[in-house]
Inverse folding.
């Protein structure tokens, strides 16, 4: 072989990577990938591999509390007919390993502090946690300074007995208390059996320093017995194509909120929201469009003084379809059926085209009586949804 050709092949190998070099960027947990360097636990792998690596986790149950502090991909793999990777509570229990932007202590089963960290095909199970209300339990917690994509992840049984009205159990939680911007995508996940919030994205920075895409997830709170939230977003972003199912409105009144938007630059679109006290609640001027909302006490609440909109939604089986809170909002082309009240607290100057079927009261003014609710009082015959 000529010296020129040898030099050329060496240059190509260095530029694009030869087979062994590429393989070295992948590692295994367990013994299902005999061709890869392997580790006995997920914690050992994510602490040792180079940044940018892919950690492939063999099927099995891993009783450990994990911290990911460098960019990488964590991926559960299927071998033959087995494809379940479960992160469970370790025998010694969980310890506090993070602090929320609200100042509360957090015990995260999987804590992410870097980015991008992409996690896929992993189940996080909080069964048997030892917290007893001493800290907030989080299945998956992306802390300040982290980013990445959470895809095809299941969180379940993030249930933590504690004091009412304190967030004690969360499935997927992303936050940013830093001044630099982060982005997180939560998609195609299954989040169920939690006792405070399914998915939450939040910041204490103004303007927000985290952006979120929350799409195609199945959030199910059917077993909840206390006030609960399905999806909470306190950042710019999109909440789209999710199925958000609550525990119903008859067994425990004022049971919670399906989707709560607490930031102006939020689009809530094409979601299926059912069996909540309040289906979709907007506090700061979100765009709510193309959703299907049913079996609620209140389907959509527009509580921002301005900027909010509820257009082209399909609403059925509800006591109250759309709450305007005496503010002039964009409420157009909604289809409302089988409702006690179609539009509530409607300003006298408000006029918009909507379609009503089998609605007892299509439009209810009542703004003079409802005005105290803007300062936090409860309106007669109704309730004021709360922020997370």
């Amino acid at each position: 072989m000529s010296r020129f050709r040898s030099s050329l092949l060496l240059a190509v190998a260095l530029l694009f990577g030869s087979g062994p070099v590429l393989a070295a960027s992948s590692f295994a947990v367990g013994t299902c990938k005999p061709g890869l360097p392997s580790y006995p636990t997920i914690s050992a792998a994510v602490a040792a591999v180079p940044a940018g690596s892919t950690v492939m986790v063999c099927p099995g149950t891993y009783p450990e509390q994990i911290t990911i502090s460098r960019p990488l991909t964590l991926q559960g793999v299927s071998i033959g007919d087995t494809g379940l990777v479960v992160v469970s509570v370790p025998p010694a229990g969980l310890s506090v390993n993070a602090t929320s932007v609200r100042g509360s202590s957090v015990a995260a089963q999987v804590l992410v502090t870097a980015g991008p960290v992409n996690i896929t095909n992993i189940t996080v199970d909080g069964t048997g946690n030892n917290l007893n209300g001493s800290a907030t339990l989080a299945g998956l917690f992306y802390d300040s300074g982290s980013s990445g994509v959470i895809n095809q992840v299941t969180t379940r049984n993030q249930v933590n007995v504690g004091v009412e009205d304190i967030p004690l159990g969360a499935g997927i939680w992303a936050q940013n208390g830093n001044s630099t911007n982060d982005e997180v995508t939560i998609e195609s996940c299954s989040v169920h059996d939690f006792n405070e919030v399914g998915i939450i994205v939040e910041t204490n920075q103004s303007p927000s320093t985290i952006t979120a895409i929350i799409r195609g997830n199945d959030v199910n709170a059917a077993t909840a017995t206390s006030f609960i939230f399905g999806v909470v977003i306190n950042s710019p972003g999109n909440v789209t194509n999710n199925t958000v199912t609550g525990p119903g409105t008859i067994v425990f009144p004022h049971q919670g909120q399906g989707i709560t938007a607490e930031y102006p630059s939020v689009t809530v679109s094409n979601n299926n929201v059912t069996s909540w006290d309040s289906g979709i609640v907007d506090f700061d001027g979100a765009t709510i469009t193309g959703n299907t909302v049913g079996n609620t006490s209140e389907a959509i609440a527009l509580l921002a003084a301005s900027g909010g909109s509820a257009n082209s939604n399909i609403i059925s089986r509800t006591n109250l379809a759309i709450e305007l809170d005496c503010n002039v909002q964009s409420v157009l082309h909604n289809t409302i059926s089988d409702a006690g009240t179609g539009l509530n607290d409607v300003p006298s100057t408000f006029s918009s085209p909507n379609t009503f079927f089998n609605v007892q009261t299509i439009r209810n003014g009542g703004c003079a009586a409802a005005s105290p609710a803007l300062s936090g009082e409860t309106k007669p015959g109704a309730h004021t949804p709360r922020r997370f």
In short: The two ends are 69 Å apart (CA to CA). Residues 62-75+82-375 form one domain. Confidence is low (pLDDT under 50) at residues 1-24, 369-382. Residues 23 and 36 are 7 Å apart (CA to CA).
